[in-house]
């Protein structure tokens, strides 16, 4: 049995009925009889009867049923070594623009978080994967917590944080059923996640985000714009058909304002970037020159958009922020 972090235990509740959880051996139990397994110190707080939005959620639930789930080998990382999961997963960051880094990564691409310094405020990332935005938040002074339906991703996130000497609690969970008490986070963040969900599921996540935010807390969530140049290109390639599975769902700016506004009150929209979803300027050193030109042009247009808000209608990647 591995005891969970005391601070994390104070935060988590049953994702089904929001009742308190108590640890008993390698399980978290709620008074209604719901049981959640702890694997290698990671709580698996998924709702098994809900349709999973990602195959990794299904795999995590399968791991709960495996007798040897706690005996899976974990790589031992040397100082400066890149986690093997991250070496492969980096290719899925921003689509094809990061593909050239697969297997060749020599340092972790930790982005610059477009938020004020944390100063000890609590931070939740929904869909953290291997944790790069949580790492950015922790380095900026937030008390970060990360969730993802992927047990593989969360294992990697824990390894990387430990390797870098950063304390971040991670757990396997679903943004539609956040396993946290009401009003416990100052900041909720999500990047390149809600765009993969059906719009109904995205609305469910937003309702949960509003619930777990403290009064005065803020959310900052990246979303794709239906009229962005790159977004239009991808929609054209798939014939403007209905989306399925984990494909990106595109949103109009008025739709984003209505949807976020209904969940949490007035929402504001700012440009994240153009021509993609969206490479970070802080990652510039990782790219060949032709990608660097694209990223710098995107950054320049983003800066212009702060003075010319109408440019947001042509951006590919948007940030939607709301306050509780």
Would you mind describing this structure in some detail?
- The protein has 324 residues and is an alpha/beta fold.
- It folds into two domains: 66 residues, no CATH class; 240 residues, Vaccinia Virus protein VP39 (Rossmann fold, 3-Layer(aba) Sandwich), CATH 3.40.50.150.
- The chain is built from nine helices and eleven strands.
- Strands 1-2-3-4-7-6-5-8-9-11-10 form an eleven-stranded mixed β-sheet, with helices on both faces.
- Strand 5, helix 4 and strand 6 form a beta-alpha-beta unit.
- The longest helix is centred in the C-terminal third of the chain and has 17 residues.
- The radius of gyration is 19 Å and the shape is globular.
Number of strands: 11
Inertia-based shape? globular
Proportion of residues in extended strands = 15-25%
Protein structure class: alpha/beta
What is the overall pLDDT average? 92
* Contiguous runs where pLDDT drops below 50 for at least 5 residues: none
* Domains, number: 2
Order of strands, main sheet, comes to 1-2-3-4-7-6-5-8-9-11-10
> What's the helical proportion of residues?
25-40%
The separation of the N and C termini measures 38 Å
CATH class assignment of the largest domain = Alpha Beta
CATH topology of the largest domain: Rossmann fold
CA-based gyration radius: 19 Å
Q: DSSP helix count?
A: 9
CATH superfamily annotation of the largest domain: Vaccinia Virus protein VP39
Q: Any guess at the CATH architecture of the largest domain?
A: 3-Layer(aba) Sandwich
Oligomer: single chain
Largest pleated sheet? 11 strands, mixed
């Amino acid at each position: 049995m591995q005891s969970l972090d005391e601070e994390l235990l104070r935060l988590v509740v049953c994702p089904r009925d929001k009742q308190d959880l108590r640890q008993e051996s390698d399980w978290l139990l709620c008074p209604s009889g719901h049981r959640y397994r702890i694997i290698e110190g990671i709580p698996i707080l998924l709702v098994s009867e809900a349709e999973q939005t990602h195959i990794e959620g299904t795999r995590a639930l399968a791991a709960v049923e495996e007798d040897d789930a706690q005996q899976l080998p974990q790589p031992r990382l040397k100082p400066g070594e890149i986690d093997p999961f991250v070496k492969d997963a980096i290719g899925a960051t921003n689509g094809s623009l990061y593909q050239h880094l697969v297997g060749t990564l020599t340092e972790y691409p930790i982005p610059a978080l477009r938020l004020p310094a944390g100063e000890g405020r609590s931070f939740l990332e929904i869909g953290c994967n291997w944790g790069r935005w949580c790492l950015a938040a922790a380095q900026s002074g937030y008390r970060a917590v990360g969730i993802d339906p992927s047990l593989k991703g969360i294992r990697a996130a824990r390894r990387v944080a430990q390797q870098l000497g950063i304390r971040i609690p991670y757990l396997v969970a679903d943004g539609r059923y956040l396993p946290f008490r009401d009003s416990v986070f100052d900041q909720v963040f999500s990047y390149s996640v809600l765009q993969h969900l059906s719009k109904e599921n995205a609305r469910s996540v937003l309702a949960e985000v509003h619930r777990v935010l403290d009064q005065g807390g803020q959310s900052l969530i990246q979303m794709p714009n239906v009229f962005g140049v790159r977004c239009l290109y991808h929609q054209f390639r798939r014939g403007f058909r209905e989306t399925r599975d984990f494909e990106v769902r595109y949103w109009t700016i008025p739709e984003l304002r209505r949807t976020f506004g209904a969940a949490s009150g007035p929402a504001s929209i700012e440009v994240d970037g153009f021509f993609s979803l969206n490479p970070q300027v802080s990652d510039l050193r990782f790219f060949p020159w032709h990608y660097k030109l694209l990223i710098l042009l995107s950054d320049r247009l983003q800066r212009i958009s702060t003075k010319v808000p109408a440019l947001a209608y042509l951006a590919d990647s948007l940030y939607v922020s709301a306050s509780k």
